[in-house]
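Lab manual, section 2.4: Encoding a predicted structure.

Procedure: take the sequence of the chain (145 residues), apply the prediction step described in section 2.3, and record the output as structure tokens. A sample record is shown.
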Amino acid sequence: MAEHKIRLTWNDGGRPFAYESYPREHQIAFKDGQDMLTASASPAYRGDGKHGDPEDMLVAALSSCHMLSFLAICTKKKITVQSYEDDAVGFLEKDGGKLWITRVILRPKVVCNADAATLEQIHHLAHEACFIANSVKTEVTVEPR
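Recorded output:
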């Protein structure tokens, strides 16, 4: 239905190619290079902690997709949203002998003109509509603040 392309680039930076020394930083370009970010491995895997890592990006993708679905539903229900914040967290855990992001908790804080029960319903609908949540086996829960 739609293609979503990125371009990932990496080079050795002139450093020796050994596990202890090769650089983990790499660039990811979106939208034909119009938007770029630098990512790395997690510091636990010799990455640079000042950059997001793939695990962070998965959590961010789930949070972003949920928010975009939530906002779209609010507009259709004529609910005005002034702000939306999420302090999401993902858990890299060992399960079945493999490390993977087993669960993500989204903790959205929404300022709008709807009551708590309505917000809970919309968060449920947003979770059901989220393309990214529907694409992963990771358990995603929503705990509104």
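Check your result against the sample. The domain at 54-142 is CATH 3.30.300.20 (GMP Synthetase; Chain A, domain 3).
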